[in-house]
Amino acid sequence: MPIEVSSEVIETLLGEAARAYPHECCGLLFGKGDEIISAKPTANVHPEPSRHFEIDPRALLDAHRAARGGDRQVVGYYHSHPNGAAEPSATDRAMAAPDGAIWAIIAAGRITLWRSGDAGFAALPYVVAPR
Q1: pLDDT number for residue 57
Q2: Rg for the chain (alpha carbons), in Å?
Q3: Whether residue 24 lies in the annotated active site
Q4: pLDDT per residue over 107-128, tens digit each?
């Protein structure tokens, strides 16, 4: 079953990747079940933002606190590969927790979704839902 992604999320991710270029953008994905309803850009606090990303830890903690008991949960993360492919890099594979989170990767005007798990990343099909 494909993940349903709001058209607003698609616009946000593509816009953030374009604005951040030549650096990597990053942020959080919110939703419930197999839906991604919203995205929140965060600061990329990595010392080498043109090659790596690190979501601002404060933004991550705040998002998880805000999601407690609410409809929308933190379901994953997004980042861009400004000069790469829309697939997990070796660094992504090494750093990802096998927690089932959804990762959206933006590159060359394209977005792909992945789920992190014990066996690494698995590609996720998705459909865009108007919102």
Answers
A1: 95
A2: 14
A3: yes
A4: 999 999 999 999 899 999 999 9
Least Cα distance to 129 among 44, 37, 64 occurs for 37
Provide the pLDDT for residue 1. 81
DSSP string, the chain: -PEEEEHHHHHHHHHHHHHHTTSPPEEEEEEETTEEEEEEEE-B--S-TTT---B-HHHHHHHHHHHTTSS-EEEEEEEE-TTS-SS--HHHHHH--SS--EEEEEETTEEEEEEEETTEEEEE-EEEE--
pTM of the model: 0.94
* Number of structural domains in the chain: 1
Pairing mode, if any, of strands 35-42 and 3-6? parallel
Question: Which residue is catalytic, options 24, 48, 54, 87?
Answer: 24
Q: Give the strand pairing for 26-32 and 35-42.
A: antiparallel
Here the CATH number for the domain that contains residue 51 is 3.40.140.10
Exposure pattern of 27-50 as b/e (b: 16+ CB <10 Å)?
Answer: bbbbbeeeebbebbbbebebeebe
3-state SS assignment for residue 27: strand
